[in-house]
Amino acid sequence: MLTVTMISLFILIGLAATKPPEDHKFTNLKVLPKDITMEQLDKVMDSFKEALGVKCSFCHAPSSDTSNHHLDFASDAKPEKEIARKMMKMTTKINHKFFSYNKNEQGEKIPAVECMTCHHGKEHPVH
Ligand code: HEC
Ligand code: HEC
Q1: Ligand 1 close to Cβ of residue 122 (< 6 A)
Q2: Closest approach atom of ligand 1 to CA 25
């Protein structure tokens, strides 16, 4: 009995240690800047949702904690998330290579091509 209690205690301590810090840093960004703010990331994710006409769960896998209906945003379990990363790189490349002259008055680059340009609210543009 004592052993079981000790083991659960260690598991609890372990879980507490792996919990993300309160200031919420994203843990699995490979394309977006690692220091992106919560607000900026929300904007990007909302634009994906709108451009493809899908919910967050189209790219994000459910949490392994089945007692809730949360998504595990850091998980790469859904292939759609990796495709989305490729699409992000492709879109940046197109803008950089062919539309680099597209700038506002402050000289900041404005992307001429975005997810919406091809997807138009559909997950699969060719259908
Ligand atoms: C079309 C696919 C797609 C959709 C839809 C989408 N996301 Fe994402 N999301 C991604 C990709 C790809 C990344 C990783 C980006 C990177 O590697 O830089 C990501 C990363 C994240 C992260 C950061 C996780 C971490 O800790 O690394 C959060 C939080 C997140 N998304 C929330 C959302 C929310 C909330 C929605 C719905 C409003 C949403 N996403 C919709 C593709 C998507
Ligand atoms: C130049 C046009 C173009 C742009 C820009 C573009 N996509 Fe795509 N996307 C496509 C095409 C075409 C397909 C279908 C590819 C196939 O049939 O295999 C696709 C497929 C996808 C898929 C897989 C959908 C599925 O049915 O499984 C995801 C996810 C995706 N795109 C996300 C994005 C995101 C996020 C962006 C913006 C960062 C983006 N795309 C920008 C053309 C584009």
Answers
A1: no
A2: 26
